[in-house]
Amino acid sequence: MNGLVYLTWNYLRRRPGPSALLAACLGIALLLPAVTHVLTSGFEDALRERSDATPLVLGAAGPPLDLTLAGLYFSRDGLEPLTTGLARRIGAREDLLAVPLDLEFTTRGRALVGTVPEYFEERGIVARTGHLPFVAGEVVLGAALARELELGVDDHLFSDPPDHLDLSRPSALKLRVCGVLHPTRSADDRAAFVTLETCWVLHGLAHGHDDVTTGTVDPSLILGQSDEEVRMSNAFIPYNEITPQNRATFHLHTDPDVLPLSCVLVFPRTAKAATLLKAETNIERMYGPVQVADTRAELDELLDLVLGLRRLLDGVALVLLGATAALGALVLGLSMKLRTAELRTLDRLGSSARTVALLQGLQIAFIAAVALACAGLVLGALLVLDPDLTLLL
Amino acid sequence: MTNSSSPTGSRTSGAIAVRDLRCDYGPNTFRLEVDGFEVAAGERVALVGPSGCGKSTLVQALAGILAPRRGVVSVDGVELGALDERGRRRFRLTRLGLVFQDLELIDYLDGLDNVLLSRRLAPGGRVSNADRARARDLAGRLGIEHLLGRLPAELSGGERQRLAVCRALATEPSVCLADEPTGALDRVNADAVVDLLVDEVARLGTTLVMVTHDERVLDRFDRVVDGAAAFRGITEEPVR
């Protein structure tokens, strides 16, 4: 080992505290912009990829960005419902595919998305184990959600109770896990998917119960009866789980066309179809008080905000780096003063006049190398340990 | 008298010759003039004299730390005036052993690494197992082998100075220059260090020039040179 390298190594080794502190400061100053850059780049890529795959979202009038985020990321904040009838009208067009979503419910705090099989086809998602939900009462879990909840096929989980005060709705529905999806590194990994029929049960618009006309039900629960209807007490509890045995008893209590939806993902077959739908919906109001959000345009606005934030963070990181460099220079300067006797000794022994500069340079290089390595390791560990890190944004 | 080999392997004389030397020390405040000063190869010479007569300045000139303004300084067969600063540093690092009263050990290197410091600072900076073995052998003769793993801060003053002597002789130099190496030691330690230094240079055949104020150790030297009589050290007050 070169003499000066050996001296520098021993100097740092014998003073681990200050050296580690300097390396840590420098490492953090380097890590911050790197993490910001990696995360925002990943975030940007993920957003663009998802918006490219889903160009249009149809929903109730309101902020189009909210509608876009609802359609792409299952956010349901401030979203007014649509009707299934409207989705059916849109879906009847041959120049596009309409995929309805019901985002009203959650399970264990994660989105419980009601949809149709075409959703998985359009996204290219297949089940890694089990199968997609075919019937009411089945749920398929995103890969990350299944890992997080430690659930697999044939396990059960409950939907989150939507409103404890609304007695017309079931408090929670027990769902059977029918499959786990392949990881997609998208919002689908952290969601659970059910059929629209399951959502109707969760809305309280469909339910299943014992037959009240065959005399098998406790008569005290029957409040009134006519040829057309039987009025039951609230103590009469419908099924809170849909099983093969009771599935046939589930029935709707409303017109199928007015069943609620959160939004409709629209996959136009051509650019012309997309333009026509936007014009008919947003300009001609052919479908009533609804809108079609162009996801690319909306996310571009959002990305402008993100990029602005990144520039701000880069600026902050630059200031932090400058401050750390100034602090490091001060510490090195002071350490050189403390090393005056040592440097004089080296000088008198015959060491090169460049020794001082080389010692300083090597010390900085060692600390910078350690800081860089640590920052790289932390960044790598972050990305390896949680590859979905950008999704957390 | 046996000559030692240089670190480069070439046989060298170890003789010292100074003629018509003039050295300036500091910003025109001290001037040393030496008409003639010679030390034979392997000779052990003590430089004595009152403070300010130029003993330390002469040693610095012999070490190449000070460049002569005039005259000839030949050490171990090398005319120092003919070398540039870089050459004089390399000469000092590879051909001389130096012990100074205030020549501090490097506080973050253990004893062995301090002894091998000149080897590490030399071009290439490699330390071989043979170098380590030689250093341990020398430290054993100086009675400090058991201290080689310790840091200087863990050593007493006498032990530190013995370590400095060990460092000076570890390269088996042709010439060893010592400037009051015992100045900061008590009598017992000072005697021990001088005994060890003199015995070891005698064993190695190294030429020794040592500045000292301690008259009790003069009988250990081949010759004593009184700086007050041999040189002219002139201190000049700066002109306002």
TrEMBL record, chain A:
Keywords: Membrane, Transmembrane, Transmembrane helix. The chain crosses the membrane at residues 315-335, 356-385. The keyword Transmembrane applies. It comes from the Bacteria. This is FtsX-like permease family protein. It comes from Rohdeia mirabilis.
UniProtKB/TrEMBL annotation, chain B:
GO terms for molecular function: ATP binding; ATP hydrolysis activity; transmembrane transporter activity. The keyword ATP-binding applies. Residues 16-239 form the ABC transporter domain. One of its GO terms (cellular component) is plasma membrane. InterPro entries: AAA+_ATPase, ABC_transporter-like_ATP-bd, ABC_transporter-like_CS, ABC_transpr_LolD-like, P-loop_NTPase. Signal peptide: none annotated. This is Putative ABC transporter ATP-binding protein. It comes from Rohdeia mirabilis. The lineage of its organism: Bacteria, Pseudomonadati, Planctomycetota, Planctomycetia, Planctomycetia incertae sedis.
